[in-house]
Design a protein that fits this description.
Blueprint: H1 2-10, H2 19-44, H3 50-63, H4 68-82, H5 91-104, H6 127-131, H7 135-138, H8 151-155
Helix pairs in contact: 3-4, 3-5
């Protein structure tokens, strides 16, 4: 009898062969339960993102008599600062963000649709013109290789 008790104490509990499968399934369901509640507020708060804030600034300024360039600079600066991206938001992307915010919520931005075309004009300093800005502005103040500055002017 003692040998029978010793063998029962040394025996490992046996798991059914499905145990790893049940464990993975439970882990997957738990993960979905944790991820889904976090994803819902992100979708709900999308109207408060940098594009919506940029649209609000741009449309407010335009509706109050400011010209396109001043309004664009203010909205683009706000979008660049508010974006949580690792990379800088391009002027083209910022223009699209503003356009999407206005088109998706026209009641929020009344009479702003008439100004959206200015974001895409190359000759007025909008997003398209900002992308073609002087290279010294885009490179942190460094002069272009083919610029008219002499060597002493460039390094002084």
């Amino acid at each position: 009898m003692a040998s029978h008790l010793a063998s029962r104490q040394n025996a490992q509990p046996t798991r059914p062969p499905q145990a790893p499968l049940f464990f993975l399934l439970a882990l997957g369901i738990t993960s979905l339960g944790l991820v889904a509640p976090m994803a819902a507020p992100v979708r709900a708060a999308a109207g408060d993102g940098p594009g919506a804030k940029g649209a609000q600034v741009y449309c407010f300024m335009r509706n109050n008599g400011n010209d396109h360039l001043v309004s664009w600079n203010a909205a683009y600066s706000l979008i660049k600062r508010q974006s949580a991206s690792l990379f800088r938001t391009s002027p083209e992307h910022a223009a699209v963000m503003i356009t999407e915010a206005v088109v998706n919520n026209p009641g929020t931005y009344p009479d702003c649709g008439r100004y959206l075309g200015d974001l895409y004009k190359r000759n007025q300093g909008g997003a398209a013109a900002a992308a073609e800005a002087a290279p010294s502005e885009l490179r942190g103040g460094r002069a272009e290789v083919g610029s008219s500055l002499t060597r002493s002017e460039r390094y002084n």
